[in-house]
Amino acid sequence: MTRAYDRDLIARAERIAKEENIEVRKRRICRANGTLYETPAEYLFYQRVGGDAIGMSTVPEVLVARHAGTEYSGCRSSPTKAGTSRATIPTTLRSN
């Protein structure tokens, strides 16, 4: 699958975000098996292969939706940088 996310829906979401003065950043999500926290080595691996965030359910949800013919776009909030604290769930690998 080369275009999991619908480009028209993405363009619409970006236009609305711009109208509402909402910052949008495009990122790449990697899938990890759950339920567990990734190790520091796994975070480094995902970052090195181009991932920006790690999730358990987003990728399978997109695959099922597209297989069913559903137009799909994603929106994810990942406020925590990877490795910043053991007390939080680190999901974001890279931030600008």
Structure commentary:
This protein has 96 residues and is mainly α. It is 33% helix and 6% strand. It is built from 3 helices and 2 strands. It has helices at 7-19, 40-48, 58-67, and strands at 29-31, 53-55. Strands 1-2 form a two-stranded parallel ribbon. Strand 1, helix 2 and strand 2 (53-55) form a beta-alpha-beta unit. The longest helix has 13 residues, at 7-19. The radius of gyration is 15 Å and the shape is globular. Mean pLDDT is 76; it is low at 83-96.
Instruction: Give the N-terminus to C-terminus distance in angstroms.
Output: 28 Å
Instruction: Give the strand order, joined by hyphens, for the main sheet.
Output: 1-2
Provide the gyration radius in Å: 15 Å
Structural category: mainly alpha
Report the helical percentage.
Answer: 25-40%
Number of strands: 2
Number of helix segments? Answer: 3
Amount of beta strand: 5-15%
Low-pLDDT segments, ≥5 res: 83-96
> What average pLDDT do the residues reach?
76
Largest sheet: 2 strands, parallel
- Oligomer state equals single chain
Assign an overall shape: globular
Along the chain, the helix and strand elements come as HEHEH
What keywords describe this structure?
single chain; 96 residues; mainly alpha; two-stranded parallel sheet; 6% strand; disordered C terminus
